[in-house]
Amino acid sequence: MFDFWNKLCLVEVRLLDSSFIEAMKTGSSTDDWRRRGTKLFNEGQFEMATMCFEKANDAYREKWARAGGLVATADSVMPKNLELGQASLQKAAEIYESIGMHEKAASCYIKLHDYKRAGMMYMQNCSTSRLEDAGDCFAMTECWSEAAEAYFKAKCYTKCLCMCSKRKLFSLGLQFLEQLWEEASVDESNIGLLYSPAAYGLIVDSLDAHLRPSNKKLTHGHLGRMAIFLLHVVPWGAMLTSRLMQYLDSESEWANFFQSLDIFVHHSRYDFFGHIESQHPSGLDGRYSLLLNLKLALESTFKFTLNANWRAEPDYISPMCCVDLIECLGYFASSCFVLHGCMFSTESIFLKMVMRKNCSLYFQSCLMSTPDRELEKMSISVERFIFESARSLLTKKHMIQEWVQKTSSTSHIPVLLRLVVALYLVPLNLKVGDCYEATRFLEMHKVFEDLPLEFSQKILGALQIRSWKLGKFRRLFADALEVIGERMLVAGSPRAQATCRGLNAIVISSWDCMVNHVARTVNSLFRDESIENNFLGKIQRKGLLPHERNRGGNKIRDAEFWEKFEAFQANKQGQKDARAIVVFLRSVLSWLIQRGPPTKIDVDLLLEVRQVCNDFDKQSDDSAEKRACVTAKDLYSTWKDGGKKLKKIISVLRSEKASMEEDRRNAAAADVAVQSHTDGCSGSEPGTGAAEEDAPEARGLSTPEDVEAHKQKSKKKSKKCRRHALP
Q: What digits encode the pLDDT tens for the residues 292-302?
């Protein structure tokens, strides 16, 4: 064959020397080496792959291949040579860590039985999908608190709660449950978990673990923790209360408090708007008993504290928990006056109480009830107690410091600051005590020396004011709160809010809370930083109630409402039917909520109308046919002077309609005048838009949408006039 090709002159013969060998060599690029390394790596030839990646100057893949080779070596030699296998895995884990392959490093640590390090790797460096694996690793090494935290972050809540219960991590478990309650108030997707056996088991198991050695009753510390937890919401009711009673003296103040809380919570229900209201008339819904018994429970605790007996207690209530309960008691007391007056609080206190469903329930119950003299007297007594207790505690700064050091790891300064704020809120709310006298008292006991400097300077400035008035101190205190990152919050009736104009505070209308639920009102309020201090500010911006949005998403237009109004007026027979009257009143309320009530309608009358609608809706036990036949006479028997009040509402609405029609006619006439002026373009001056800026108010445009449309129209006309006027 060689001869054949040679005869054809197709063969070149050369001597085999070094120059020929160099000429025959072909170069390989870095990409060629990388591709070959990848192929070898996938085939499991890690040593050869490492060499190829080294030739390709790819340090990352080189380490990856080397670590892979070490793991393969460890797997093969571990049964025969444990020490060599472990050394290979340790080296591989370190290499994986150095190149950021944390999951592979964690798997090496698991093979090495170093579960804690593997758990930390999953927890700190891997995605949330590996958090449950982190919890499992911590559980293997008996790091129970880390395991519970990992399960909680992984949203494996049942595992988390069971871990806390089984391993006696009761304080941590209750903290997790409190956090779940707060999240459930915004997102109800996990609400079922809070009713689960795991949650109930954790609470019940926590009782046995916190008993005083002397009498086998609950420690003061756990009493405080249980009180804070139960103020969120507990669905197990009498069952849990009966278990609690086993660990308390039946006649003790705390036993009475827990019983009164259970009575209050389970004697309430939701109305048709989705709001919580009492089933009982004012004074019988448990608010008085709850307020009194929480005061007495705290009073017994303060006596124990001030007598220095707490030092001998193995688990005593922490100062932060104590102050938390004081704030809760003050919130309850001031809530009684929110419907027809004002309550002053701070942003953080109010938000915290709204997130606790039982505290929010108390506030909502105050909105739904008529004034109660006995409850108001008790509220004043409670405020006096808070004022005197805060003063007594603040005279003992060194005791507070020791108390904090014994029961927690925090500083005593936040405790002092919250006590001072609670002290000042009392005279601001009910004029119990004197703000200026309290300031002198705090200065005399050198309390301000431990508080933030700017806050202290603002408050001490009150002593320089010659005319001591509550309104001046209120503004000064609001400014002092702002310098510590806090804000004053005022909740009350629209009439009472008028006294808060110019105050550096968040203002919430009691009407807003009533028609749109407290939590929703607060959520919408704090999402929007531009706070409006006007009646129904939030409702007007949103335009609709929640139940109306669910029915189609369109608000009630003026034309649609006036059609219903005229139909009701024309239907004389319908005016004798209670159901038709209630339907009409609901449409009136919805329409007024959108645009704001006329000045001729008293706010109290609107609240009364809403209560009438609620009472009518409570007849749900009767059939729909029976309810449809209830006469107006029956309705007016429970609604005092109902016929006269209905006529007054119709009269005001008729007047409002006539006024709106006149405003539209005036607006139309003004538009014609402006149009003729701009068409002529008298060339007076290009700035004619300035005069038109005031037009919406003068022309009485009926809705915010009309005003905005008119402004846009005016701007276009101004631009047109300018184009004609300029040379």
A: 999 999 999 98
